[in-house]
Amino acid sequence: MRVKALEALSLYYNYGIRSLAPGEEAKGGLALHLLATGANVEPLDDDARAFGRAAVDKPHPDAGLDIEATAADVLDWVGEIPERAAEALEAELAKDKPRSTLVKQLEKLADSDGE
Q: Which member of 31, 100, 101, 103 lies 3.0 to 4.6 Å from 3 by CB, making a disulfide possible if both were Cys?
């Protein structure tokens, strides 16, 4: 996996500060980290482009609840926030066929109240 920095970047990676100049290439784990964190980089190979498309297709946590999304995406949206878990639980239970495993996980998160 390879990416090219589109601006000067300074980041904490692998227990140290890394700097990249505009146009400098990164590969492997560093490239993956840059893509995953939304750094201003250009994908240079098929793997990087595929990862970039997957990140764009995934809903942003602040986009609001999409109860029809995958269970993993619903849980990503909820995070560790009991209020979001309660909202997602209510929406899931309102469905004709609630997903039992998701319901159990949401109940656990909704009842946590920061414990």
A: 31
Angle between helices 28-36 and 46-57 (to 10 degrees): 20
Q: How many CB atoms lie within 10 A of CB 41?
A: 23
Residue 5, φ and ψ in degrees, nearest 5: -70, 130
* Pair 26, 6: CB distance under 8 Å: no
Long-range pairs for 38-41 at CB < 8 Å and ≥24 separation? 39/5, 39/9, 39/11, 40/5, 40/6, 40/7, 40/9, 41/3, 41/4, 41/5, 41/6, 41/9
C-alpha triplet 24, 27, 29: angle, nearest 5°: 130
Is-above-0.70 flag for pTM? no
pLDDT of residue 49: 86
Structure-block tokens of residue 87: 């909202």
Q: Which helix (H) or strand (E) holds 16?
A: strand 16-20
Quick one: which of 1, 5, 9 has its CA closest to 41? 5
